[in-house]
Amino acid sequence: MGIIRDMQRAQATQAAADQRSRTAAAQQRQLIRRNADLAIAAAQQAAADADRQREHRRLYAEARTADAAAANADLRARLTDLDTLLLSTLDVDDHIDLDRFKKAIEVPPFDPGPLGRPAPEPSWSSYAPPQPRGVGKILGGERLHAQQVAAARRAFDQAQAQWAEHEQRRLRRLVAREQQYQEYKQRHEAKLLAYNAEVDRFAAAVAGADPSSVVEYFAMVLGNSVYPDDFPQHFRLAFLPKQQHLLIEYHLPPVEVIPVVKEYRYDRVRDDLLAVPREESEIRRRYTEVIAMVALRSVHEIIEADRGGLVRRVLFNGIVDTIDRRTGQFVRPCLVSLDTDRETFAAIKLRRVDPVACLKHLQGGISGTPDALDGVTPVLDFEREADNDFTQEFNVLRDIDERPNLATLPEPEWEQTVADLFCTMGLSMGTGKGGRWLASDPRPLFGGPVVVQTVRGQVVDVATATALATAVIEAGATKGILVATDGFEPAVHDELTGRPIELLDGSALLNLLAEHTGIKARIESEGGARG
Fold first, then answer.
1. Which of 122, 263, 480, 482 could cross-link 451 (Cys pair, CB 3.0–4.6 Å)?
2. 249-263: per-residue pLDDT in tens?
3. 3-state DSSP: the chain helix, strand, coil percent, rounded to 5?
4. Which of 125, 65, 481 is nearest to 273 (CA)?
């Protein structure tokens, strides 16, 4: 039933996109971005007139200020998406009516096209010569007319024979075409009947608590839940039919989903957007709330979708696939864990709860420092308690996501993607080597050489960042741009404070690609989805 899950996911994704496009935050962000574009256009127009340099500088400053406002609007929209992770699912009926996936047994009626229209039969009146009249009739006109009639009759008989032959050929082709249609109709109806029978079989298996079908159904439920693009949506499910327990091992998003920038400010002196960092305490608080909301949201969706009472108890482990910045190793700690029965959970009024407090009320465990990857003791050992016969793993995005994966692009394509992005944003890119370019900013007054460097597959450390800062000085560049798909060690931000280096992590890169090139990409390493 993978096709049903994919159809359900596509419909839910479209519905969520339509809903987001109507939100006030999205409208405000579009208005701010439009104002920024207008201001930039005005600055460029003023720059064409040498006598209006002062006006150009004023308009340019307004454009850069509008740029900062647009970037801040994006930050606010991102935080709104994160803050409403739990509330956004409460207005959705998570139950999946499998009958609506059935297809009507309808086949378009037979259309013979031109074969259904016979050619007009030849008419003697169009061949018969006119009767002789007057003097022509007296001067031998009747004999000539008889000859004309004989010739016309031969032409008419030939036309009739050709028409009859063409008509027989048309009728034979029409019969063959109709036979082909009947065969197609039978095949198409049989295919629809088999598909609907499979839907019925699956629905009956779910209602009958068939373990593998129950797992598949709840995978559809969780896969139907639309999260921000950089959330993994990768999970394992197991169903224990005797105990009526559903076991969930859910991959949580990494801490990088919380924007490390609190706000952007335009510095007129340096002609640059300055990123004000978000305090670590706020990042930790927000990340703790996010993983708590994912846990509560998942359990809520399972229980709401379970109208048949298949599941009496839900056991949830929330793990994260990421890199430990202290060791550089891939790790998979359990950051949140919950064991709850449906009656207790159903009594919770999720619209009014504090997610972290609610999780603790339910005797769930949640890391006090999830940003440091400090795990909790899981309420279940998935490997020990789950029966392999009733366990399945699902990666919703990997199954249906057609976005290019920046983490696995061949090196030439990766470098070309980055170069194209910065060219679109106004830089003149030179030849790249080893992930580094000496680019040029062509803007008057504020432009100059720019060193661009990219790093994939590892968290950038202080040494790498310092090396770029040194390269900027040696090249006489005005600034450097460091792109890191896997983010930066915390000390990097401190080390580069006050230096003309702009840091772009994976989330920022994805946003820039979408905004400036229209490319919807992702960053998914072998260890798991991280963007």
1. 480
2. 999 999 989 999 999
3. 55, 15, 30
4. 65
- Out of 3.90.1170.40, 3.90.440.10, 3.40.1350.10, 3.40.50.300, the CATH code matching 411-529 is 3.40.1350.10
Rounded to whole angstroms, the Cα distance separating 253 from 528 reads: 10
Give the residues across from 246 on adjacent strands: 239, 314
In angstroms, the CA 481 to CA 273 distance is 12
* Token duo for residue 133: 């009249």
> Which residues lie below 8 Å from residue 502, measured CB to CB, with a gap of 6+?
272, 273, 275, 479, 480, 481, 482
State the DSSP string of 214-282.
Answer: HHHHHHHHHHT----TTS--EEEEEEETTTTEEEEEEEEPPGGGS-SEEEEEEETTTTEEEEEEPPHHH
Q: Token pair of 88, please?
A: 């956004």
Q: What is the pLDDT of residues 176-232, one digit of tens each?
A: 989 988 998 899 899 889 989 999 999 999 999 999 899 999 999 998 888 887 888
| Domain coordinates in residue numbering, the chain | 1-83, 113-204, 224-259+285-401, 411-529
Taking the C-alpha atoms of residue 241 and residue 44, their distance in angstroms, rounded to an integer, is 68
**Is the pTM of the predicted complex or chain greater than 0.70?**
no
How far apart, in whole angstroms, are the C-alpha atoms of residue 59 and residue 39? 7
Residue 474 near residue 226 (C-beta atoms within 8 A): no
Q: How wide is the angle at C-alpha 433 spanned by C-alphas 476 and 437, nearest 5°?
A: 35
235, 221 Cβ separation under 8 angstroms: no
- State the average pLDDT over residues 46-53: 58
SS3 of 462-522: the string is HHHHHHHHHHHHHCCCCEEEEEECCCECHHHHHHCCCCCEEEEEHHHHHHHHHHHCCCCCE
- 325-348 residue pLDDT tens: 777 778 899 999 999 999 999 999
* Cβ contacts of 105-109, under 8 Å, gap ≥ 24: 105/189, 105/192, 105/193, 105/196, 107/184, 107/185, 107/188, 107/189
Whether residue 154 is predicted with pLDDT greater than 80 in this model: the reply is yes
Q: What pLDDT shows up at residue 12?
A: 64
Scanning the structure block, which residue is given the tokens 């309420």? 379
CB burial readout 425-444, b (16+ within 10 A) else e: eebebeebeeebbbbbbeee
DSSP state of 409: S
Measure CA 149 to chain center.
77
Query: Which tens digits make up the pLDDT trace of 490-503?
Result: 888 888 888 888 88
- By C-alpha distance, which of 34, 489, 477, 38 is closest to 272? 477
Q: Which of 257, 163, 323 is nearest to 506 (CA)?
A: 257
Among candidate residues 268, 270, 263, 275, the one with its CA nearest the CA of residue 497:
275
Residue 381 φ/ψ, nearest 5 degrees? -95, 100
